[in-house]
Amino acid sequence: MDNSLKRRCKARLARVRRVRKSIRGTPEKPRFSVSRTNSHLYVQLIDDANGVTLAAAGTMGKTQADGCDKKSKESARKIGFQLALAAKAKNIETVVFDRGRYKFHGIVAELANSAREAGLRF
């Protein structure tokens, strides 16, 4: 592997570890994890104590929100709202937000704001 690729991979992992070193999800307060690709967006509610995903949503897959086929701010709003509704159905009111290696800006911020508007607290 080229040295620059190794350096970028190590820097990416360092960003993730820096954000997640103090974040842990519990059954009462799960981790709201965000994952992005070039064309899709995924979110999960994770209980780290038991190693279980409590709810998930994304622009692709079984839990796809209506009208969300590509990664955009509008899709992020719909996905955040959908995940907040799924959390409320499981009696989850508060979560710990895990942005991963991504900046809290643009699509990630829209996702978080729509989840807050739907009733999740973090």
Explain what this protein looks like in three dimensions.
The chain has 122 residues and is α+β, with helices and mostly antiparallel strands. The chain has one domain: Nucleotidyltransferase, domain 5. It has 3 helices and 4 strands. Strands 3-2-1-4 form a 4-stranded mixed sheet, covered by helices on one side. Strand 1 and strand 2 form a beta hairpin. Helix 2 packs parallel to helix 3. The relative contact order is 0.18. The model has no long low-confidence stretch (mean pLDDT 90).
Regarding CATH, which class? Answer: Alpha Beta
- Mean pLDDT reading: 90
What is the ordering of alpha helices and beta strands?
HEEEHEH
Number of strands: 4
- Proportion of strand residues: 15-25%
Question: Can you tell me the number of structural domains?
Answer: 1
Strand order of the largest sheet: 3-2-1-4
Structural class by SSE content: alpha+beta
Largest beta-sheet details: 4 strands, mixed
* Helical proportion, percent range: 25-40%
- CA radius of gyration: 15 Å
Low-confidence runs: none
**Number of helical elements:** 3
**What best-fitting shape do the alpha-carbon axes yield?**
globular
Ends distance: 40 Å
**What is the CATH-assigned architecture?**
2-Layer Sandwich
CATH fold field value: Nucleotidyltransferase, domain 5
